[in-house]
Design a protein that fits this description.
Among the domains are: 40 residues, no CATH class; 104 residues, Lipocalin (Beta Barrel), CATH 2.40.128. The chain starts with 8 loop residues before the first helix and ends with a strand. The longest helix is centred in the first third of the chain and has 7 residues. Helix content is 7%, strand content 38%. By secondary structure, it is mainly β. The chain is globular. It has 7 helices and 29 strands.
């Protein structure tokens, strides 16, 4: 029973149930064997929860888990002089449990000036540490002056006393400011197991793109027996290029095997409130790709383009504000995904708002797969809702909704938002309001299909999604909602049934 423009402030205030917000940038979620949930993020921030709803900040515990010797070993290769604090250059950790090692493993970006970054492995016996340094997985930004401080010679089979750094790392190098033409900034790791139990790590960013390496489950580090060709989308040291390149935006990769595919999540745009951060999704039958979206678009950029609003990759959501929200949600990105033990899927990301600051906090939304097999994200934060296998009664679905279409062309600089429009699902299966067309639900499934044409448009699109009942953010009000994906333009459509008060 959701937000209508007719809801009064007094009514909303009477139903407000504020939820404490945790601030963890670039959040990676992990569920331990005892069922507890942990989030770790940039600048060694963290939180813990029993239910995905109430979170406890654990920054001091996480930072205390890295002693001075561990910090010294992390910092051995690089030093970001702009960081401003001992943890200011430590970005985007990923936390997994390695059964072979019987260790909790944190993969952490140690960022440095001029691409001189590396990804380190820390191991511990508990999710909250303490953690010790176990080695570096991959190094970036090396030159002919310092490459012997890395494992490049070992990986490429070179003798540092006799051989020189291969010319490709000099011609496309740090000294001439061309590193990002071909090679990655070694940040934003995502470590995952494939269906055969093989361990992988994706990493990288705008600079050179997103790369993939196979890891050795026995050590958690690079698998020394795997070789990579040096080719257009591959490098003998950095591994397989799976997305991006040429300084085109794209970072915070996350890969998860679900519903028969490997799903690649990438954040396009810049992370600031005015930067237009937005999450895109692709899938593949293999960890190494190729990854494509529902329309068959691929992930590579071999020349520079401005891709923030490209119609490439399923865009899960954009900047928006419901009528019940006090601020608009902007620059949502750098996500992780949880496949919970009860079969539910969740996307975890940080968002900024239109409150005039760069404050960010974590949001967790449940998501589902529509009848076409593509993810659709719930319109509100999770509060424990469940998707009924039989779906919502069509008689209950019928009614007037606030709907948000997540268009791809907002004015980010001025924080333009996707705002609610009015849509009525008539009991006879027709649609009126901001869109005309038809809708169909039921058949003992949660699936919903809408064929819609905007009032000022001649072209229709078919939106495939699901219906369920949810609690409106920061209230105790419940309503019928839907989330659906357009088959033609890959635009997400959210609906929330109106109430009055």
């Amino acid at each position: 029973m959701t937000a209508s423009v007719e809801l009064t402030k007094e009514f909303l205030d009477a139903h407000r149930v504020p939820v404490p917000k945790i601030s963890v940038h670039d959040p990676t979620i992990f569920q331990d064997r005892d069922g507890k949930y942990y989030i770790v993020g940039t600048h060694i921030t963290s939180a813990r929860s029993d239910d995905l709803i109430q979170w406890v900040n654990t920054d001091e515990i996480f930072r205390g888990a890295l002693n001075s010797e561990t910090m010294k070993q992390i910092r051995a290769y690089n030093d970001d002089f702009k960081a401003g604090s001992p943890v200011g250059y430590l970005w985007a950790p990923d936390l997994i449990y390695n059964e072979t090692m019987d260790k909790y493993c944190i993969y952490l970006s140690a960022n440095g000036d001029h691409w001189q970054s590396n990804i380190v492995l820390l191991t511990g016996d508990h999710p909250e540490g303490p953690y010790t340094y176990a080695g570096s997985v991959v190094y970036g930004g090396f030159t002919e002056d310092n490459w012997t401080e890395t494992d490049v010679a070992q990986v490429l089979g070179l003798d540092p006393a006799r051989d020189e750094l291969p010319q490709r790392y000099i011609l496309n190098g740090v000294k001439n400011d061309h590193w990002g033409n071909k090679f990655p900034n070694c940040i934003d790791p995502c470590v995952f197991y494939d269906e055969e139990g093989q361990l992988w790590m994706s990493y990288g960013s705008w600079s050179g793109g997103i790369f993939l390496l196979r890891l050795d489950p026995k050590t958690g580090l690079r698998d020394p027996d795997v070789e990579y060709p040096t080719a257009k989308h591959s490098d003998a040291y950095f591994g397989t290029l799976i997305a991006g390149g040429s300084y085109v935006t794209g970072e915070g990769s996350f890969i998860k095997y679900m519903n028969g595919f490997y799903w690649l999540f990438i954040s396009y745009g810049e992370l600031q409130a005015h930067g237009g951060y937005n999450i895109r999704v692709f899938r593949s039958e293999h960890p190494e790709g190729p990854y494509t979206d529902e329309r068959g678009n691929g992930t590579f950029y071999d020349t520079y383009v401005q891709n923030v609003n490209f119609p490439t990759g399923e865009r899960l959501f954009g900047p928006y504000r419901w009528n019940t929200d006090e601020d608009g949600m902007v620059s949502q990105g750098h996500n992780s995904v949880l496949a919970d033990r009860d079969g539910r899927f969740y996307i975890v990301f940080h968002t900024r708002t239109t409150n005039g600051t760069e404050f960010h906090y974590v949001r967790i939304h449940q998501f589902f797969f529509n009848k076409n097999g593509w993810p659709v994200v719930a319109p509100y934060r999770t509060t424990g809702e469940r998707l009924s296998e039989e779906g919502v009664d069509p008689a209950k679905i019928a009614g007037t909704y606030d709907v948000i279409l997540h268009r791809t062309d907002p004015d980010y600089e001025h924080q333009e938002l996707n705002l609610p429009e009015i849509l009525t699902l008539q009991t006879d299966g027709t649609v009126s309001g901001a869109y005309s067309g038809t809708w169909k639900a039921g058949g003992d499934t949660p699936y919903l299909t809408l064929e819609l044409t905007a009032a000022n448009d001649k072209e229709s699109d078919v939106y495939a999604g699901v219906t369920l009942e949810m609690t409106i953010d920061d209230t105790d009000l419940e309503t019928v909602v839907f989330t659906a994906l357009g088959e033609k333009h890959q635009l997400t459509l959210w609906g929330s049934k109106q109430i009055r008060g």
